[in-house]
Every structure is written in structure tokens, then in C-alpha cells.
Amino acid sequence: MALETAYIQEKLNEKFGNNVLNFEMSRDIFSFEAAPNLIREVIRFLKEEETLNFHFLTDLAGIHFPDNDEEHQFSVVYQMHNWIENVRIRIKTFLPENPQTDTITDLFLCANWMEREAWDFYGIDFKGHPQLKRILNMNEMVSHPMRKEFPMEDSGRTDKDDRFFGRTTTNS
């Protein structure tokens, strides 16, 4: 029997109730949101529940949404894969302005570098991470360069416009 999205949703609702929401098919991947305080437990459940078998973390990424309200400024997106049934899912959790969530490095060793990258570029703090430090940028950096509050280029340049990259600019 193939693993159906309705079954995945039913199992998640049964276990987590209203803390998992906004289920949808998005570009052929079953997607949903999870409450930030339970994201680690949702990931664990998807991995350890015998009938679900999401044993592979494909990706973990940070995103900055500067136009959202304060409680939804940042997001961490997890993509998991059930190799037995060849089913992929996407789990999103939204975080406030000073983003912080639990690490999943004890569940998936590959999350180590992915969480470090999200910290390095977006400043998302993964509580309990064994070595949360910069991975690609210099340790001396005090900012997180993928946050959209930082301009991409020198403000004197006329050939690039931050508006085209989702960044707003203020005129002096």
C-alpha cells in the first residue's frame, strides 16, 4: 500500500492536533507547518513512526520574510524523504525576529552543517547544537548576510536595484 498524504496528515493530527496546520500539495511535495516549540518532536515522529519512515533529511534551510509580522519574520524549512515509498515532505516552522529553535542534530547527523549554514547566513539559533559557529563566512563577521535588512550592493550603484531582490531601500 502506497503512503498517502491523507494518511500522513491523519497521523500528524492524531499526535499533534492543531500544532500542525496548513497542509497542502506544493509543487508535488506534501507540505505543512508545525509550531516552533514542537518542530523537533514532529521531525522525530516522522522519522520514528514505523508507518511513516521518513528516515532521510534531504534539506534544512533558513528564510527571511522581512514583510511578515514580528512572529513570522523567519522560517526554517525541513525536507524529508521516505525512501521505501519514495515520498517527500516539506515541514515549515515560523520564528520571531530573534529566531531560535531546537537542533535536530541528534536525530540527523547531516543537520549539523545545514543548521550551521542557517546560523551563518540568517542568525537562526539552534538550541542544543554541538558546535554552532560560522561555516562559510569569517568568524569576525557580526552580521548575517542573507537577512534582507542588509543592502546587496553599494548604494551608489545604479545598475542594481535592491527592490528586484526582495529588499526594500530607504531614501535619505
Describe the structure.
There is one protein chain. The protein has 172 residues and is of the alpha/beta class. It has a single domain (5-150), classed as 2-Layer Sandwich (Beta Polymerase, domain 2). Helices cover 20% and strands 27% of the residues. It is built from three helices and seven strands. The strands form two sheets. The chain has a five-stranded mixed β-sheet with strand order 1-2-5-4-3. A hairpin with a 2-residue loop joins β1 and β2 (29-34). The protein is globular. The chain starts with a helix and ends in a 45-residue tail after the last strand. The mean pLDDT is 88.
Task: Fill in the keyword field for this structure.
172 residues, alpha/beta, Beta Polymerase, domain 2, five-stranded mixed β-sheet, two-stranded parallel sheet, 3 helices, 20% helix, globular
The strands making up the biggest β-sheet line up spatially as 1-2-5-4-3
> Averaged pLDDT, please?
88
Total discrete domains:
1
Question: Could you give a short account of the major beta sheet?
Answer: 5 strands, mixed
Helix tally?
A: 3
Shape: globular
Which percent bin holds the helix content?
10-25%
Number of strands: 7
CATH architecture: 2-Layer Sandwich
What is the chain-wise order of helices and strands? HEEHEEEEHE
- The CATH class name reads Alpha Beta
CATH superfamily: NADH:ubiquinone oxidoreductase Nqo5 subunit
Strand content: 25-35%
End-to-end gap: 62 Å
